[in-house]
């Protein structure tokens, strides 16, 4: 009988944590959508509202952490039950980071209010934003349903977000090289795109945690990553470097010819 009561108490406590995670997920999705809408419209007031929403996510994250610690201390869960509690704790942390990154996008909006980004960039950011929102929505559905297969599908799609980020990165570099006056605006947009890419990474972390919670197995294969921005150089810089190398080579050949000619005259 006591064991039955303990099991019921644990299930009730776990259900409360589940409700908080669902609320956090809904708020994180709303905040991200509001931040991206504010970016498209260059609306500082909308961005401010999105920033305020982040406070509620922070509060819920603290409540989840306190609740998880209480469950572990009082219920002493083991095996599958402990895995569920630890998984919920990790997911709440990932959702809190998603809220912070969405807030960062909103802050960029306030700075960019007087600047109008080129249409191709707006389209690229809009497309990338939709991809990230879809990922977040799908991973939250996978959590509610405890669907390991759906979580894995989300995990596998992370590369699509990286590819979108690579494309935006290249476009922004091109605009900055062609017109240095756009460097300030493009830098803020670049940080905004980077925040979206990082949100995608946190969504992937949530997917990994869901898979482990449900199956007890970790996704031990290499995470699909397509971020190539560390290997991208502005084309002008590459051309300048190549020209410099070629110049040094020609100079070396010239010095060698002079030296050889001098030796011939001496002979």
Radius of gyration using CA atoms only: 26 Å
Helix content: over 70%
Describe the largest sheet: none
Q: Which range does the strand content fall in?
A: under 5%
CATH class (first level) name? Mainly Alpha
Tally of domains: 1
CATH fold-level assignment: Methane Monooxygenase Hydroxylase, Chain G, domain 1
Tally of helical runs: 8
| Broad structural category | mainly alpha
Order of helices and strands: HHHHHHHH
Task: Report how far the terminal alpha carbons are from each other.
Answer: 110 Å
In the predicted model, the low-confidence regions spanning at least 5 consecutive residues are 236-246, 261-267
Number of strands: 0
Query: On the 0-100 scale, what is the average pLDDT?
Result: 85
CATH superfamily heading:
Phosphate transport system protein phou homolog 2, domain 2
Topology:
Layout: H1 2-41, H2 44-75, H3 79-112, H4 119-145, H5 148-156, H6 158-178, H7 183-215, H8 235-266
Describe the structure.
With 267 residues, this protein is mainly α. It has one domain: Up-down Bundle (Methane Monooxygenase Hydroxylase, Chain G, domain 1), CATH 1.20.58. Helices cover 85% and strands 0% of the residues. It is elongated and about 65 Å long. Mean pLDDT is 85; it is low at 236-246 and 261-267.
